[in-house]
Amino acid sequence: MFVFANADNGGRHDVRKDRYRLNDGQLLSRLMRCPDQGGQRHTLRSLAATTGVSKSKLDSMTHGKQMDVTGEQAGAIAEAVGVARGALFTPTAFVIANANALKGENR
């Protein structure tokens, strides 16, 4: 989710993007191997199919490389492995100070 705030900062727009950081890739791997309520264990492929998060992104996460996802993705992953989102992920937020710089409109 993007939130644009036009603060009194000389015409710049601040962009806030909510993200969630995976606390522990090894924990996610262990949870994938535990059967869920229906008795299913997850592989990277099945977790990707269930959550809509790419297999390569999930692989990177389980190996501690790419740890940030959107709130929607974090919720889907946590639900698929049968835990609360807060058990796996920590909310983070970052602000891009000058959104116009992203468009090449430096002032």
Describe the protein's architecture and organization.
The chain has helices at 25-33, 44-51, 55-62, 71-81, 85-88, 99-102, and strands at residues 2-5, 14-22, 68-69, 89-96. It is α+β, with helices and mostly antiparallel strands and 107 residues long. It has one domain (2-80, 87-102): 434 Repressor (Amino-terminal Domain). Strands 1, 2, 3 and 4 form a four-stranded antiparallel sheet that branches. The two termini are 26 Å apart. The relative contact order is 0.25.
Nearest-integer average pLDDT: 80
Distance between the termini: 26 Å
Number of helices: 6
Please summarize the sheet with the most strands: 4 strands, antiparallel
The figure for the number of domains is 1
- Coarse shape: globular
Looking at CATH, which topology would you report?
Answer: 434 Repressor (Amino-terminal Domain)
| Secondary-structure class | alpha+beta
Order of helices and strands: EEHHHEHHEH
Strand fraction equals 15-25%
Counted beta strands: 4
Please tell me the CATH architecture by its name: Orthogonal Bundle
Q: What low-confidence regions span 5 or more consecutive residues with pLDDT below 50? A: 1-9
